[in-house]
Fold this protein.
Amino acid sequence: MRTLNAPERLRRVDRSNMLGVLDGYVDAFLSSFRRASHARLAAPAGLANVVVAGMGGSGIGGNLLAGLIQAECPVPISVLKDYTVPGAVGPKTLVLAVSYSGNTEETLAVAKEGVARGATLVGIASGGQLQRLARERGRHLPVPEGFQPRAALPQLFGTLLGAAHALRLTALAPDARLEDELRSFHATVAPTAGDRANPAKKTARALKDRFPVYYGAGLLAPVALRGRCQLNENAKMLARNDELPEANHNELVAWAAVPDPRRYFMSLLRQRDEPPEVGRRFDFVMRTLERRRVPHGTFTAEATSELGRVLQGLLFVDYVSVYAALLRGVDPTPVEVITDLKQALARPARRVASRRS
Ligand code: F6R
């Protein structure tokens, strides 16, 4: 597809209307936050730690939440993306389990084990077994049905942050200024903003035939992860993400010697009020890329609040992934192989016949 400015052509590729879903991003986040922040939730007495469990599109909210609130949260927060539960989980633990379908094995395993160890469970799900477990043994916070899990991030993350607020883990809450800043930013990346003025369309065009890499730091490191996952699932592209300062201690060496630089596109996710030490690292990475002639671009989140900058980053990378999909002629919504995997895992394992030699 050569143009991203012809609505009927976009609709022909975007058959399940991912762009339409993105349209409701800001409202969905704000209303989900509001609803969850008024829920009657209580952390266990003597709260010792918080774990946030979730996979893929449901799991990224945990990374975003931890990045935003860990400095103010009085207890450690860990993000779990596996079946196993750390030894520190017990009766003084709050388990925030997030699964859009409510049926994801790893998340359910953590929620069940948490309950078995006496932890307090808050489950965020649109249905499924997690909804049942949370209603019976904890508290359930609903999200609306009918979306792809990753497309429901504004609902999932809004609900998670609202729950953290209701549980007094954070005082963070969107205000009128954040809403204004988000709405005006949204207009700059939405399909109605033409190719030349739209940073998400420009980035999608630059990376669509390359191997994209996102770098973020601090609060925007989880946004870089989201950007990679969205390119994987929406554009069906291999991609990677990394974060500063860590990548300065390893991957930088590979960029300085990269043999085929034009195969890659590096997108640096930066923000207003970036700590100067982080800024210097980004500048050095950029000079290294320039020296090797690696195609790259910088996105700077300009909102006045940290939450606003994270949400602007999310809008940017989400739109980039959908535009990249459409430019490649790929319908962003279906992820058949994940469905196949879940069906395969749900079947009882076949016994491997043992043969005597
Ligand atoms: C699909 C998607 C996946 C799922 C993941 C976990 O759109 O984003 O990454 O989020 O397979 O499933 P749920 O979200 O149902 O727990």
